[in-house]
User: Fold these one by one.
Assistant:
Number 1:
Amino acid sequence: MVLSLQEIQKPIEHELIGFEKKFRDSMKSNVMLLDRIMTYIVNRKGKQIRPMFVFLAAHLSGVVNESTYRGAALIELLHTASLVHDDVVDDANMRRGFFSINALWKNKIAVLVGDFLLSKGLLLSVANKDFHLLGIVSDAVKEMSEGELLQMEKARNLDITEETYFQIIRQKTASLISSCCSVGAASVGADENTIAQMRDFGEKVGIAFQIKDDLFDYSTSKIIGKPIGIDIKEKKMTLPLIFALNKVGWMEKRRIVNIVKNESEKQSKVNEVIEFVKKSGGIEHATAVMQKYVKDAVGIVEGFPESPYKQSLIHLVHYTIARSK
C-alpha cells in the first residue's frame, strides 16, 4: 500500500516545520525586489521531497542536528537556483502551475536571482564550515549541468543508446536525490561506508524517479504534471522510445527518428510515435527496469535497523514511483 505524503512525513514532521523556517530565513535579502521574489518562491514550494530524503537518511544514520538542517537548506537553495536557471534556458513560463520567475520578472532578473540563491547556499556552508556537505552538493550541481549538456548534445542526432540514457539521467536527475541522502548521512557524522550506501540508495531512487517521469509521456491521464508527448516534442530520447527503436528494423527506426526530429510539432505525429512505443513493448520494459531500481534501493535500506524513519524512507521510495504527477 502506498501511503500519502502526509503519513510518510509523520516521523519527521517536527524537523520539516523547523526546516521551513530556517529555509525562509536563509533566503532573506535587504534588497526589496529580491525579498519579494524570494517570498514568491517560498510560497509556491513543492512537496518537500528533497528535505524529506535528507532528514530520513540522517535519522537512519545518526542524530539530526543543526548541520542536517543546513544541509537540507543548502540542497534546496542550489536546487531552486537550478530550476530558475532551467526556466530561462527552456524559455518556460510556468513552474508547478505558477508563473516562472523569468515570466514575471524577465530573464535578466531571473539569472541574477539564480546566482543569488547559489551564493546564499555557498555562504551558508562556508559560514558554518560545512565543507563536507558543500563538497557533496557542489559535485551534484556539476553532474546535473553535465547531464543536461550531454542530453542537448545527443538530441541533435537522436543517437542515444540505453547506456548513454542512463548516464544522462544518473547525472541530470539521480545525482540530486543521491546528494540528499549522502548529505543526510554526512551531517550526522556517519562513516564513509554508510554515506556511500546512502549515496547509492539515492542514485537508484533518482533513476527510478526519472523513468517514472519518462512514462508520463505515454500516459492518457489528464492529471499528470506535464503535457502528453512533451518529451517527444522536445526531441528527448527516453527509455521507452530507445527500447522500442532497438526492437525494429532499420527502415522503421529511420521513419520514427525522422518524425521525432522533423515533425514532432504535429500532435498527430506525436501520437503515432506514442502508439509505436506502446506496441513495441517500450512501456513494459521501462516499467520493469524502474521496478528493478526500486527493489535494489529498498534492499539497501532493509540492511539498517528497524525504525519509523526506515519505514518512512521505504514508503517514500514507493511514493516517488506511484505518484500521478
Number 2:
Amino acid sequence: MTKLHVALVLCLCTAVCLVGGCSKKEQQSNKDTTPQPQAKLTIGVSLLTRTHPFYQELEAGLKDAAAANGYELLITAGEFDVARQKDQLQEFIVRKVNAIILAPCDSKSIGTSVKAANDAGIPVFTADIACLAEGVKVVTHVASDNVAGGRLAAQAVARAINGTGKVAIIDHPEVESVIQRVKGFEEEIAKTPGIQIVAKLSGRGVKDQAFRTAEDILQAHPDVTAIFGINDDSALGALAAIEKAGKAGKVMVIGFDAVPEARAAIKAGKIYADVIQKPNEIGRQTIEAVKTYISGGIVLPTVLIPCALFTQQDAN
C-alpha cells in the first residue's frame, strides 16, 4: 500500500468517527432536552376508623386534595386497634412511600412505628389525633382546635343546666384529641362554681361501650344533670341509657362532631347541642402540608381548625 493509499484510508476513518461522534452527541443532546415524566407521589394513610362519618368526611378531604395534586393515596384504618395500625405503618415503610398520614388509635403506643418511619427517612404527618410518644418526629399536626371545642361544650352545658348541677364526662383518654377536649371542658366548667364534675369514665369512643358507661354513671349518680360525650357515639350511647332509665329531658346531653344522627337528635330536642368540626378541611390542609414539605417549603408544626356549636336553632 502506498503512502497515498494510507493517507486516504486514515482520512476516511477520521470522517467516519467524526460523523459517528456527532450523531452520538446529537442523540445525547436530544435525550437531555426531552422532559422526563415525574414519579407519582405516594402517601400512606392510616386513619383511626373508616366507618365513622367524621373520618369518612376527613378521607374525602384527603382524596380531593390528593387528586388535585396528582398524588396516590394508600388508605387504611386501624379500626381502634393500635396493633393493626402498627402493621399498616410497617407495610408503608416496606413499600417506601413518600410520606405517611396518621390518625393514631393510641397516641402513645403508636410511637414505635412513627420512630421506624423516621429511621426510614419517611416524613410523618398526623391528622385529627396527635402522637404523644417521646423521641419521635412528626412534621405537622392538623386538627380541630379541640381545647377551644371543649370550652364550647362546657359553655353549652352551663346554659343547658342554668349554671348549676352535677356533670359527668364519657371519656376516651387514650386519644390525644379527646385529652384536649376534656382539658378545655374542665377548664371552662371550673369558671362556673355551681357545676360539679362527679364522674369521668371511658366509653372508648363507641356507642355500645358509652351506653354501658352511661348506665354506670346514672346508677352511681342518680342526680346527675348533664353528660358530656367526647364524640357523638358517646353522646348517642348516653342518650340511649338516659331514655332507658326514664330520664329523658331530665339529663342534658352535649356531644362532639355533629354527625347526621346527632343532628337529628338535636333537632328533636333529645341532645342539647354538639360541637361541630370541619373534617374535610382537616384532610385538605394535611395534604397541603405534605405538598409544601415535600417541595422544600416551610410548614407549621401545628395547624388548628376552629370549631363551632351546633344547636336546635341551627338544626331548624
Number 3:
Amino acid sequence: MKYLDFIDNTKISKICFGTWNLSPSTKKFISPNTTTPLQSINLLRFALDKGINFFDTADIYGEGIGEKIIGKAFQNLRKEIIVITKSGVLNERNDTNFSKKYIEKKIKKSLTNLNTDYLDGYQFHNITSESNIDSSYNFLTKLKKKGKIRSIGFSSRDPIDAYKILKNYNFDFLQVGFSIFDQRLLYSKILELKKKKKFILLTRSPFNSGYLLKKKSNKALIRPKLQSLIDHFVKKNKKDIYYKNNSLAESALKFCISFPEISSIIIGMATKLEITRNINTMYDDLNLEQGWKKKLIKVYKTFNGN
C-alpha cells in the first residue's frame, strides 16, 4: 500500500474505502448494499489489516447505519484509522441544507454514530458554487480550532464548479468523480490551482459506480442510457483502455492511481476479493506507463468531441 500526506502529518492510504455500499437501503435513500452489518464490519477490519486506513462515509448512508458500522468495526482502533464523513443532502432529489443549525446537529449525530469524539474530516455533501455556506464554514473553522474536526472539505458532482468553490474558500480537501470515462477533472483547472493552494485532492467512482464494470446490484440504481454509453466507449476504445494484460477494473484503477496529484481514490468494495484486487493494483513505474496514460486522455477527448 502507498500512503500520502493528509492533515497534521498523518498519512492516508492511496485506496480509501467508500462505505455507501456497506450501508442498507432505507425508504429515503437507496444503496447497492449486498452485505449484512456483520459482514460489513468484517470487510472493514479486513481492509485495515491489508493496509487501508482511510474510510469515507456520510450521514445519509443507511441514514446513520453506515457510520454506526464503522464505529463498531473500529471501536478499539480509532487512532489507527482516518475517517471522514459528510452531510447536507436531504433526499435523493439532492435537495440540501447547509445551514449552521443543521450542520451542527448532523455533526453531533455523526460523532455519536462513529463512536468518536473527533472527526478526521468533515465535508459539505454535494455543494455547488451557488450554495450558501458562509455561516457553516465559519462554524466548522471554530470546531477545527477546538479539535472536534481536524479538516474541512467538500464533495462535488461537477469538477468545473468545484474549481469556483476552491477559489473562494480555503478548504483542506475535496472529493470529485474521476475515471477513464469521466475526465472532467483534467479540464477544470483544479490541478493547476492545487499547486497554489495546497489542498488535498480525493477522487471517487473510478468504475463509475459500477457501470464501467457492468456491476449494479440494485435495479433501482440502473440507468440504461448511461450503461449503453459506457459500453460503447469501452468497446470502441478497448485496445487503448486495457493496460497490458490487466483487466478492465485494474486498468481503470491504474489510470486514476497514475496521477500523483490525487492523494487517495475512494472505492466502494463488497468482498475481500475486491479489496485485495484493488490494493494490488498499484502504479509502479510512471515513466513506463506514461504512453498508455496519454492515449487514454486522448481517447476521452476524441470521444467527447473536444
Number 4:
Amino acid sequence: MNSSTFFTQRKIVFLLASLCCLLWGSAYPAIKNGYALFEIAAGDIPSKLVFAGWRFIFAGLVLLVFAFISRKPVFQLDRRTFGQVAIVGLTQTSLQYVFFYIGLAYATGVKSSIMNATGTFFSVLLAHYIYKNDRLSFNKVLGCLVGFAGVMVVNFSESLLSFDFTLLGEGFVVIAAFVLSAASIYGKKVSQRVDSVVLTGWQLAIGGLALLLIGFATGGSLTGFTFKSTLLMVYLVVLSSAAFSLWTILLKYNRVSMITVFNFMVPIFGTMLSAVFLDERFLEWKNGVALGLVCYGIWLVTKEEKGG
C-alpha cells in the first residue's frame, strides 16, 4: 500500500466516523426536544422505551426497504444467521438502552455522559483478547486516557466533585456501555457473513420491537403526534439508520480500537449542538480544551505505521 492510498483511507475513516458521532451527538438535543413535544415526563422510563422502540423500528425498516430495492439478500438469511442477527439487535439496541435509560433516571446527565464513555475502554480491552491484530499498545492506552479526559473536561461541574456511585444509577450506565461494546464486537463478526445494511436494518428493527414491547408491557405510551413532533421523529429515524449502518461498515473493515475511540466525540458534539438548539452555554474554554484532547486521543489511537 503506497502512502497516498494509506492516508486517503485514514481520511475517509476519520470523516465517516466523525459524521456518525456528529449524528449521534445531535440525538441528545433532538431526543430532549422529542420528550417535550411528545409530553414524556422525565421519570417516565416506559414511555421513553416506547419512543425509542418506534424510532429504531422505523430506522430498521428504512434500511431494509433500501436494501431490498438495492437487491440485497434481505430475506435470504438462514435460521442460524438470523438468530445471530437477532442477538445483536436484542443486546446492542434493546438491552443496552434499557440499562442506559434506567441508569439515566438515577444519575445526573453529567455523570452518565462520562460513565457511558467507558465503553471505549471496554471495546479496546475486549478487542485485545479477541483479535490478534488489535493488541493493546502504549499509544492506544494513552489515547483512550486523553480522550476520556476530554469527556470529563466538557462535562466538568461541581457534581463531578461528588463521588457517590449507585448500582441503579452510574452502575447501570457502565453496564450499558459494556453491553454496547461487547455487542458491537459480536456484530463485527456477524457482519463478515451478512451485508452491513441488511444486518443493521434487521438488528434495529428487532431491537426496536423488543423496546416497544417492554415499554408497552410496563405501562408506556406515545401520544402528542403533531407535524413538528412527527418531523422530529423522522429526523431521529434517518439519523439512526445512517449512523448505525455507517458504523457497522466501519467496524467491518477496520480494527475495533481504531473506530471506537471516535465515541469520545459524541458528548463533545452533543454539548455543542445542545448549546445551539437548546439555548445552552457554548462559548466556554472547556469546550475547546475538551475537543482538543479528544482529537489528540483519536490521533494517538489511530496512529500506525504505513501498511500496518
